[in-house]
Amino acid sequence: MKYGVVLLRVQYWSLSINTGIAPMYLSEISPVSLRGLCGTFNQLCITFGVLMSTVIGLEQVLGTQQHWQYALGFPVVMVAWQLFSLSFCPESPRFLLINRESEEEARKALIWLRGTSDVIDEIQEMIAEREKAKSIKKFTVSDLFHSPELRSPLIICLMMHLSQQLSGINAVIYYSTSIFMSADLSENQAQIATLIVGAVNVCMTFVSALMMDRLGRRTLHLFGLSGLFIASYVLALGQIYNQYSSGSHTWIGYICVVAVVVYIIAFASGPGAIPWFFTAELFAQGPRPAAVSAGVLVNWSANFSVGLAYPFLQEKINAFSFIPFIIFLGIFWAFTLFKVPETKGKTIDEITALFKTDNYDRGYRPIINEDED
């Protein structure tokens, strides 16, 4: 038991590290025109992993008393594959040139990634960022709060992560099976419905990846938050009506099932993926690792808080337990509308320039014209 607890802690530490490093690495190696697509593929793989876990956990597969240990051990196969495939991946060219000051290694990595030797423009952009970074000291998380130019993007970064977890996504996922059963579905049918919801999550995350560099991060995040707000409102009304009305109302259950599906679609369209790679887009190479660390800390802390608080809310206020999420979603939608800039098609220099102190002194609002490029 003691060793099991230790292994579980190591697993969570590893997961926390990877959820920060993977989107940062993808953001650094991808070209500007495909940065949103590559960043969203991180979330796509996560949703696909969740779907596969749901499939493996079905009673018809490995979700039985005799075979559960095989389901638990299956991730070892994927870990081995990742370790093997990562050995062929190059180091981030941006890291090599800016942090290690090795232009030749960065050029080789960039040529391997792009499949062409015409990488001079990207190399020059990295060199310019490196020259600026030389006059700036090393960054820690506390430095992010002290610098006016970094404090604003940090607040945006943390709010984006909070909008993901305080949207109630974990509560909806945990509660989905019981919602489906309230629509007079059997336990087995409810599990199949949950599996379908997982498939919808994967499909919509893929669609979001394709649209990320066309519609933009801010637009998709606003769209996703709007859908989450509406779906949460319908879920709350359905649960409240079901609690206070007499008799059984199967049609309420079906409405709640539809609301859950809409909720997953809205989450996958923006809030599920954007916060992870958006942080890496808002910061230059120097403060980026510290900012990503802060974002991961806030994301997982919010995840833990929701997981800890929601059962208590459900016990105390029952059908009203979705109301706090509705309030949070309204706040995050307004914040995104008025404070979050669009980063689609912009270089790191162009994005960080949005947060220069003189811009804020003039009452700058980061709602920029997407056609400027």
What is the share of helical residues? Answer: over 70%
**Order of helical and strand elements:** HHHHHHHHHHHHHHHHHH
Q: What is the radius of gyration?
A: 22 Å
- Mean pLDDT comes to 82
- CATH fold node name: Growth Hormone, Chain: A
What structural class results from the helix and strand content?
mainly alpha
Please give the domain count: 1
Number of separate helices: 18
Q: Can you describe this structure in just a few lines?
A:
76% of the residues lie in helices and 0% in strands. The protein is built from 18 helices and no strands.
Walk me through the structure:
The protein is mostly helical. It has one domain (2-89, 136-372): MFS general substrate transporter like domains (Growth Hormone, Chain: A). It contains 18 helices and no strands. It has helices at residues 2-29, 35-56, 68-73, 75-86, 93-99, 103-114, 120-134, 141-146, 148-165, 169-182, 187-215, 217-244, 250-269, 274-282, 288-317, 323-339, 348-353, 357-361. It is globular and about 70 Å long. The termini are far apart. 37% of the residues are buried. Mean pLDDT is 82; it is low at 1-9 and 358-373.
Topology:
Elements: H1 2-29, H2 35-56, H3 68-73, H4 75-86, H5 93-99, H6 103-114, H7 120-134, H8 141-146, H9 148-165, H10 169-182, H11 187-215, H12 217-244, H13 250-269, H14 274-282, H15 288-317, H16 323-339, H17 348-353, H18 357-361
Helix pairs in contact: 1-2, 1-14, 1-15, 2-11, 2-14, 5-6, 5-7, 9-14, 9-15, 9-16, 10-11, 10-13, 11-12, 11-13, 12-13, 12-16, 14-15
